[in-house]
């Protein structure tokens, strides 16, 4: 019982929301009569492919953003490169400031349509949260702790990996979760540049005036975002050292 009380409320409450929404959607789905177009789009074979492509877009973009943003954030907190931090953050902020659809269209002129272009657009759009949280997480580590680790003979690299990064993990992973949720939502726009995603259901529903298809697409995107956010929260809890909150 005491263990349950120590578990953060979102860890057990978010799955309840996911189950309620998921079960509600299934009951709604079974009670509806669909047109031939809706049946084709929401058939399991087509729907499975669409969901998997949406997940692939999200995962690939997230991996690239993490590989780029975390090392860059670490480098920008080192004394030699500290002066470049405002420049890097402002450049990363361009992705957030620009409309997502406009950003994807601009990359289409350069790279053409399809999966690769969608990935590039998503990476640019989602890099800021992870970069900024990496910098903030490392900056908030108590300087006295760093000095103490150096005082007992730790090198700069050992201090970074055994002291600074473990203490910054909660903030960094929070940025990764934020980026994941952003990517799940933004990936729906990739349908405009020829990449398959759940946005296909939404745009088809709008174009052909099929509200049931539009509702299904919106609910499935929402459920996917909730599931990925919850899984990210579990990873955040597992990766956070004991005593660090």
- What is the H-and-E element order? HHHHHHHHHHH
Distance between the termini: 21 Å
Low-confidence stretches: none
Alpha carbon gyration radius: 21 Å
Helix and strand composition category:
mainly alpha
Largest sheet: none
Task: Give the overall pLDDT as a whole number.
Answer: 88
> Which band does the percent of strand residues land in?
under 5%
General description of the model:
The chain crosses the membrane at residues 12-29, 55-76, 88-112, 118-138, 180-202, 214-232. It is found in: Cell membrane; Membrane. It is a multi-pass membrane protein. With 245 residues, the chain is mostly helical. The chain contains eleven helices and no strands. Helix 10 runs antiparallel to helix 11.
Tell me briefly what this model is.
It contains 11 helices and no strands. The protein is mostly helical and 245 residues long.
Attribute tags:
single chain, 245 residues, mainly alpha, 0% strand, flat, membrane, transmembrane helix
List the helices and strands and how they pair.
Blueprint: H1 2-6, H2 9-30, H3 36-42, H4 44-76, H5 85-97, H6 100-111, H7 115-139, H8 143-151, H9 156-186, H10 199-207, H11 211-239
Helix pairs in contact: 2-11, 4-7, 4-9, 5-7, 6-7, 7-9, 8-9, 9-11, 10-11
């Amino acid at each position: 019982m005491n263990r349950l009380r120590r578990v953060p409320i979102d860890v057990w409450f978010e799955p309840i929301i996911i189950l309620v929404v998921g079960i509600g959607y299934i009951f709604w789905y079974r009670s509806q009569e669909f047109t031939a177009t809706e049946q084709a789009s929401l058939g399991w074979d087509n729907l499975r492919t669409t969901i998997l492509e949406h997940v692939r877009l999200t995962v690939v973009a997230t991996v690239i953003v993490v590989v780029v943003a975390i090392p860059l954030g670490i480098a920008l907190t080192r004394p030699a490169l500290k002066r470049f931090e405002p420049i890097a953050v402002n450049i990363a902020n361009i992705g957030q400031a620009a409309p997502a659809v406009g950003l994807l269209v601009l990359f289409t002129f350069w790279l053409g349509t399809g999966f690769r272009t969608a990935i590039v657009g998503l990476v640019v759009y989602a890099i800021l949260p992870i970069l900024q949280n990496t910098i903030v997480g490392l900056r908030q580590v108590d300087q006295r702790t760093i000095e103490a680790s150096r005082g007992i003979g730790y090198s700069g690299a050992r201090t970074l990996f055994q002291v600074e990064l473990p203490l910054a993990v909660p903030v960094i992973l929070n940025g990764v979760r934020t980026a994941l949720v952003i990517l799940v939502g933004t990936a729906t726009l990739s349908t405009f540049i020829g990449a398959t995603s759940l946005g296909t259901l939404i745009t088809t529903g709008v174009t052909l005036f099929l509200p049931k298809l539009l509702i299904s697409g919106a609910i499935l995107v929402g459920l996917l975002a909730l599931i990925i956010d919850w899984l990210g929260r579990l990873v955040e809890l597992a990766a956070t050292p004991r005593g660090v909150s």
